[in-house]
Amino acid sequence: MSPRSDPDALSRPGDHIDSPEREPDASVTQPKLGFVGWLRFGWRQLTSMRTALLLLLLLAIAAVPGSLVPQRSSDPNGVTQYFADNPDLAPVLDGFQLFDVYTSAWFSAVYLLLFLSLIGCVIPRTKHHFEALRARPPRTPARLSRLAGYTERALPGAARSDAAQGERRQQEPSDASRRSAYPADLEPRVDAAIAKAAEQLKRAGYRVERYDVRGEASVSAERGYLRETGNLVFHTALVGVLVAVGIGGGFGFSGQRVVVEGQSFVNTLAAYDSFNPGRFFDDTTLDPYRLSLEELDAVYETRNQEAIGQPIDFTATVSVQAQGKESQPGVVKVNEPLRVHGTDVYLLGNGYAPTITVRDPDGEVVFTDAVPFLPQDANLTSIGVVKVPDGLEEQLGMVGFFYPTQTTLGSGAYTSSYPDLVFPVLTLNVYQGDLGIDGGEPTSVYTLDPSSMEQLTGGSTGVESIELMPGETVDLPNGLGSVTFEDVSAGAGADPAADEGDYSQSVSRFASFDIHDDPSQGWVLVFAVLIIAGLLVSLFVPRRRMWVKAVQRDGAVVLEYAGLARGEDPGLEDAVASFADRHAGTATDAAAATPAPEAAPPGESADDRPNPST
Amino acid sequence: MTLDDISITLVYSAMAVYAIAFVAYAIDLARRSAVATRAADEAKAAAAAGVATADSPVAVGASAGAGAPAGAVAAGGPGGSTPTSAKPASGTVRGAASVAYGKSPALRVGVAMTVIAWALHLAADVTRGLAAGRVPWANMYEFALTGTLVITSVYLLVLVVSKHDLRFLGTFVTGLVLVLLGVATVNFYVVVAPLPPALQSAWLVIHVFVATSATGFLALGFALSVVQLLQARRESLVASAKAVKQNFLATLPDSATLENLAYRVIIIGFILWTFTLMAGAIWAEAAWGRYWGWDTKEVWTFIIWVVYAGYIHARATRGWRGSRSAWLAIIGFSTVLFNFTVVNLFFKGLHAYSGL
Ligand code: HEM
C-alpha cells in the first residue's frame, strides 16, 4: 500500500515492509569489500528487521531451558537435588551454564546482540523522526484515484455554472500568467473549498500544506507522527529497562533472616543468615535499625470442611527502632511488605521454633534456645537440629521432628494433620560425638552431619526416639543428662489460667524475613509505564495521509479525496469518506456564502459578500 | 443446593448448548463446501457451454438455493431450502476471490446457541464467584471457567464490532471452549476454598483477569491465522491453475483480509499480555520481594511475550508477512496453551496456584 518512494521509509531497516525494495545488494556484486565496507555490511545486517526478528525468536528459545532445569537464582535447593539425582548429567549441564541460564554467556549474547541491533535501529530512526516532524507533508500525488478510499464530491454549485463557465473561458482564452486552470468564476469557490479543507484537516490534528501543482489546487495533510514517536519511545524504554536492571540492580542487596517471636535482629551484614549484595553494593550504607518480632499470628481455615487447615492469613507484628530513636510499631504480611529505612521487609515464611533446654547430669543448663524447625509440608511437619557443642562430656547433636498436631499413620509413622498447635509433639534422635563445627568450616544450622557421631536413639539403635510434649522433660540415654521441651506460655506466665490441654500458645513461632533494597525498581517502573504508553500509541494511533484536490473535468470542477495508510490503518477508508462528507457538506455552506455566478452582480467579488443564509 | 452446585449445573448446561452450537457451525462449514463445489461445477458447465468466459462472475448465492442438495436442506432445517438472496457474487470461481455464500440458517442457529451458552456460562461464573465470595479466578478450574467465558465473549464482541462476517470462527471457538470446559470440570474441579495469603491482593483481580482476556484475543488470532494459512494454500493452488477441490474456504475472506484481522486481534492480545507481564512483576514485588526472578511461570510469560513481539516484527519484515507470520501466531498461541496447562500442572515454581 505504501509507495516505494516514501522518504519516510529511509530511516527504517532496509528490509522493513515499507522500505523501498533494494536492487540486489551492490556490495555483494562488488569484487572486494574493504574493511569499512565489511563493517558497514555487518552493521546493516545487524540492524535489519530480519536480524531483529531472528534474535527475538532466538531469545524465546534460549529462555526455555531455564524452565526445564532448576536455576541457582530461583531454586538453589532444586539444583542441589538435581545434582544428587543426576550425578552424571548435572556436571555436563553445568558446563553449558544450564543452571544459570539467565546469566549465562549464551543467553546474554543473544539479548545483548538484540539490544545492540535495537539501538542501531532506533538511533537513525529517531534522528529521522525529528526531521520528519519539521518537514512539510509530501506533495500531492498526480493521481489520487489510485489511492485508498478515493472518492469525489462535486464542487458545490459547480453544476449550475456550466454555461457561464464556458462563456467566461472564452472571454479569457489565454492568460499565461495565471497558475490556475479553473474557470475564473469558479476560482474563489475552489479556493474557499481547499482552504476550508486545510482548516478542517488541521483541526482534526493533521499537519497541512497547500500545493498548487500543474494548476490544480490541493491540500496535502499528514497525521499520526505520534505513532512513530510511540514506537521509538517503546523501543528506547526497553533499553531503559535493561540498563536500569543491569546497573541499578547492582546497588541493591537482599538478605534473609529468621527471627523467633520475642527476638530481634539489627540490620547489619553479620546479622543476616544469608546475604546477596549487588555488584556495586557498599555495606556501609546499611542503616543499622533494629527489627523485633513481637508476634506472628497465623490463621487457618477451621470451618470449610474441604479446606481445613488451609492458611488464611499470616501477620507479623514487629517493632522497628532506628538508632537512638523510639521504636515504631509495624506490620508485615504476605503481599504487604514493610518499607522502612530504605529497605523493604517481606514475610516470606514462618514456622515453629520449639524452645529446647538440655541439662547435664548435674542439672546444670548447657543449652537452651528456641530452635527454628523448617516446615516440610502444608501441615507444618517440621525438621530441626539441636547442636550442643559444650558443657557435656562429648558434643551432642539431636535431629528432631516437630508435629503441631500429631497423628499416627497406619504404618505407625507420625505426621501432622493440622498446621496449628492442637497436639504438639516433638521427637528427637540423639547423636553423640564430633559435630564437625570446630574445624572452622561453615555448617548449616539446619543440618547435622552424623558421619563422626554415634547414634543413641531411634533408627537401628533399638532405643526409642525421645518424644516430648510442651512442658515435658525426659532423661537422655546413657545418663547424659536431660532434655526439656519448654512450654513458653507457661514459662512466660502470660496465661497461667490456660486450660489444661490448651497448647495453642505453647510453642514460639518464627518468621523468615527477606530484606531488600533495589534502587532500580522505581526506574524500571517508569520505563515499564513508557513501554505500555508507547505501545498503545504506536499500535492504535493511525498514521495516515490525506489529500483533497480540486480538478477540472469537462469544464466542471470536482473535489477528489484520497488517503494513504502508513502502517496498519483499518479505519482509513471510512476516515476519508467521512471527511469528504463533512467537508463537502460544510463546503456547501461556504459556497452558499459565495453566490452562484449568475446571481453575482458583475464586477463584485463573491468573497466580499456577506453570507445571506446565516 | 449450594451456590457452587448451581454453578456446576450451569456449567454443564452451558456445555450442552455449546455442543449444539458447535454442531450447527460444523453443518454450516459442510454446507459452505457444498456451495463452493457446486459453484465450481456450474462454472465449468457454463464454460463448456461456451456461455461464460473464464472470468464471468457466477452468482452462487442464487444457485445455491435452487439446487440445494438434500444434505444441506436437512442440515439447515426448513429455512435451508429458501433461495438465498441473490447478492451479486463478489468474485469469480476461477480467481482466488471468495464465492458468495448468502444466508445460512445453520450459522444463525450456531450464533444464537452461542449467545445462550454464553449467558449460562456467565451465570455459572458469577455464581462460582458468589459461592467463593471473591473473583472466580483463583485456581485452575476457575481460570479455565473464566478464561473460556472470555474467549466466547471476545468472539461475540468481535462479531458485533467487525465489518467482516467472522461467524465461521464459531466452530473453532465453541470447539475450544467445549474441550477446555470439559477438561476443567472433569480434571481440574476443586471445591470452593479460601484464598491463600499470597493471592489476597488486588492484583489477583487485575493481573489474572487481564491475562485471561489476553488469552481470549490470542485464541481468536490463532484461529484466524490457521484459516489464513489454509486460505493462502488454496489461493496459491488456484493461482497456479491446479485443479482445486473447492471447499468451505472459497466462501471465506481472502488470506490477506484474514491476516489483517488476525493482526488486529493479536495486537490487542499482545498489549493485554504486556500489561499482564508488568502487573505480574509489580505483584511479585509485593508478594515475593522481587519483581522478576525467572520463576517458571515468569519464564513462560516472557517467552509468550517475545514470540508475539516476533510476530509483530514479522508482519513488518519483508519476506515474513503472510504465512510465516501466521506460523508465529500459531506458535504463540501454542505457548499460551502450554503455559496454561503443562507449566501449571507439571513445572515446579512459585506459581503453585492450580489448587490441584
Ligand atoms: C528487545 C527487542 C525488541 C522488542 C521486544 C521489540 C518489540 C516491538 C513491538 C512490540 C513492536 C510493535 C509496537 C510498536 O510498533 O511500537 C515493534 C515494532 C517495531 N520494531 Fe521492535 N522490538 C525489538 C527490537 C527491535 C529492533 C532490534 C528493531 C530494528 C532492527 C526493531 C524495529 C521495529 C520496527 C521498525 C517496528 C515497527 C513495525 C511496524 O512498522 O509495524 N525492533 N517492536
Automatic annotation (TrEMBL), chain A:
Organism the protein comes from: Agromyces ramosus
A GO biological process held by the record: cytochrome complex assembly
Subcellular localization, as worded in the UniProt entry: Membrane
Compositionally biased tracts (Basic and acidic residues): 1-25, 165-178
Compositional bias per record (Low complexity), positions renumbered to this chain: 585-604
Protein name: Cytochrome c biogenesis protein
Location of region: Disordered: 1-28, 156-182, 584-614
Signal peptide start-end: none
Superkingdom of the organism of origin: Bacteria
Automatic annotation (TrEMBL), chain B:
Residue ranges crossing the lipid bilayer per the database entry: 6-27, 106-123, 143-161, 168-190, 202-227, 261-284, 299-314, 326-347
Listed GO biological process terms: cytochrome complex assembly
GO cellular component: plasma membrane
Cytochrome c assembly protein domain: residues covered: 137-351
Subcellular location: Membrane
Domain of life: Bacteria
GO molecular function: heme binding
Key words, A-Z: Cytochrome c-type biogenesis, Membrane, Transmembrane, Transmembrane helix
Principal location: membrane
Membrane topology, from the record: Multi-pass membrane protein
The name this protein goes by in its record: Cytochrome c-type biogenesis protein CcsB
Species per Swiss-Prot/TrEMBL record: Agromyces ramosus
